[in-house]
Amino acid sequence: MTLALVNMSHSPLLQFSEASREVLDDLDGAFGAARRFAADFDPDLIVLFAPDHYNGFFYELMPQFCIGYEATGVGDYDSEAGPLDVPTEIAQRLAASVLVDGVDCAISLKMEVDHGAVQPLEILFGGITAKPVIPIFVNCVAPPFAPMRRVGAFGRAVGNFLRDLDARVLLIGSGGLSHDPPVPQIVTATEEQRKLLLNGRHPTAAARAARQQRVIDAAKAFARGEANIRDLNPKWDREFMSILSSGQLDRLDDWTAEEMAAEAGKSCHEVRTWVASHNAMKAAVGEYRSTFSYYRPIPELIAGFGVTTVLPVDAGA
Ligand SMILES: O=C(O)CCc1cccc(O)c1O
Ligand SMILES: [Fe+2]
């Protein structure tokens, strides 16, 4: 086993925003650093912790964690559609091992993934089939949420399996830090939104376009300071990132979902992918160190945007 980790925020607004050249160039610099890190590491396998935004997982049956044995990109926001290259046999052994380790985890023989899983693969590797990847869904948008200590335990169970796997594995955690994009909420949903949240699989092109346009318009208003969504919280984001880089992951155990959303917006729960992946890293390798870290609050993307790369302490300089 040899491990490396990349955590990165995502935003489908990257392709649809009015962010300035300066902002996009700055962000591209961070993507470049993460891309070089991934290329240097040259993984045999990617283990990708990702949220879903009501494209593959719905309230009809909402797990907290799900390991994909096969997976397909749905192509929202022009993200790449089609099958991922999932090594099914390893995914099966991973799931069995996580269960034996004491964390109840769903499996999917036909997972559908959205920009949350696809965007980091596109940015780091140029596409969804460039490398074998095991996608792992972590519920980050649909309350109620697993307690943070459970997210940690899940990550460690994944790490315990990877420790004994004979492969170079790149862990990825995908998702924003503080942010509050207008994803429909079950408690305030209209009749039509309720249908989407319950089982909105495979919407018509028109329905998808309308839904996405709402988010694109909200981003433009937010950048002008006019949207009715929660502000980004750079202080919270920086503190969260410094806890992860400190290695003291148990400091996150008692964070409650309500406090997190109150401080950093409803979609800040996407940090659960960072927490799971860091716990996996720590369980597999022991001490780790950050080798690159970028942060910038980017309202045009509705994202406190972070990019970090991490190696085991004993991996050399
Ligand atoms: O329409 C959606 O599905 C939400 C899109 C979205 C926007 C900003 C940051 C994100 O992380 C994100 O996922
Ligand atoms: Fe997201």
From TrEMBL:
* Co-factor requirement: Fe(2+)
Q: Keywords on this record?
A: Aromatic hydrocarbons catabolism, Dioxygenase, Iron, Oxidoreductase
The keyword Iron appears for this protein:
yes
* Pathway info: Aromatic compound metabolism; 3-phenylpropanoate degradation
> Which reaction is catalysed here?
3-(2,3-dihydroxyphenyl)propanoate + O2 = (2Z,4E)-2-hydroxy-6-oxonona-2,4-dienedioate + H(+); (2E)-3-(2,3-dihydroxyphenyl)prop-2-enoate + O2 = (2Z,4E,7E)-2-hydroxy-6-oxonona-2,4,7-trienedioate + H(+)
User: Which sites are catalytic?
Assistant: 115 (proton donor), 179 (proton acceptor)
* An MF annotation (GO) of this entry: 3-carboxyethylcatechol 2,3-dioxygenase activity
Instruction: Name the EC number(s).
Output: 1.13.11.16
Database matches in InterPro entries: DHPP/DHXA_dioxygenase, Xdiol_dOase_suB
Pfam families to which the protein is assigned, alphabetical: LigB (PF02900)
| Superkingdom of source | Bacteria
Asked if Oxidoreductase is a keyword of the record, the answer is yes
Provide the Extradiol ring-cleavage dioxygenase class III enzyme subunit B domain boundaries.
7-306
Q: Could you give the subunit structure recorded for this chain?
A: Homotetramer.
- Identify its protein family: Belongs to the LigB/MhpB extradiol dioxygenase family.
What functional role does this protein have?
Answer: Catalyzes the non-heme iron(II)-dependent oxidative cleavage of 2,3-dihydroxyphenylpropionic acid and 2,3-dihydroxicinnamic acid into 2-hydroxy-6-ketononadienedioate and 2-hydroxy-6-ketononatrienedioate, respectively.
Q: What is this protein called?
A: 2,3-dihydroxyphenylpropionate/2,3-dihydroxicinnamic acid 1,2-dioxygenase
Source organism (scientific name) = Microtetraspora glauca
